[in-house]
Specification:
The protein is of the alpha/beta class. The chain is built from 9 helices and 5 strands, in the order βαβαβααααβαβαα. The chain is globular and about 50 Å long.
């Protein structure tokens, strides 16, 4: 059975990071964050790790697989990738939603199959919750940029040399299932799967259906 390693956009050092943590000044792109994660796995002696990332985490997972394929030091470190509604690629005709221009209601509309379930009324947030939310947004911009994309990614996906599963919620409008299919098609041998009644966060909105997609992949040797 493959052993998963879940990716979170969470960093430490100078500047603010996810969840109120700090961010090192040199972690200023997805490529830099992916390199730092790979180095950590190498130092820790990890092998055949399954990288599972959601949204920006999916982009980080793919970037790690690309970098690992290009550096002999990382042979055997990354065993497989699961990209859950990942952003990062620039695909003609399939734009990434302008995440940072959306208010709370607009974000729920594009990110959730059931927008009422995903809507968080900003007027009920505490000052601490608002501060964390602002910190998270600042980290996303610092690492992923306002477009949450890298125009070089699609071409480089052809170098990914590990089994890859691309999973998308059928109702995602941050990046659509059609976008996900194009990403999967760019990765040699990748599989694409759609989760019903789910948007950008299928593992939260329809976890049972998401695990039905993930389990067979994770069980493979």
């Amino acid at each position: 059975m493959r052993r998963p390693w879940f990716l979170l956009l969470r960093s430490r050092g100078a500047g603010r990071g996810r969840g109120g943590t700090s961010r090192p000044a040199d972690i200023d792109s997805v490529a830099a964050l992916a390199a730092a994660y790979l180095e950590r796995l190498l130092v820790d002696g990890e092998r055949d790790v399954v990288l599972i990332g959601s949204s920006i985490g999916g982009w980080i997972a793919l970037e790690m697989a690309v970098q690992a394929a290009a550096d002999d030091r990382y042979v055997g470190v990354v065993g497989a990738v699961v990209d859950v509604d990942g952003v990062g690629a620039v695909i003609e005709g399939e734009p990434i939603a302008d995440f940072f221009a959306l208010d709370a209601r607009g974000l729920a509309e594009v990110a959730w199959h059931d927008p009422d379930r995903g809507f968080v009324d900003p007027t009920v947030l505490t000052d601490q919750q608002r501060a964390v939310q602002q910190s998270n947004g600042a980290t996303m911009i610092a690492v992923a940029g306002r477009t949450m994309s890298d125009p070089t990614l699609m071409e480089r996906l052809a170098t990914v040399a590990v089994p890859t599963l691309v999973v998308f919620g059928e109702s995602d409008r941050v990046v659509t299932p059609a976008y996900g299919r194009r990403v999967a098609a760019a990765v040699p041998g990748a599989t694409f799967a759609e989760v019903p009644e789910a948007g950008h966060l299928p593992h939260l909105e329809n976890p049972d259906a998401t695990w039905r997609v993930l389990d067979p992949f994770l069980r493979e040797d």
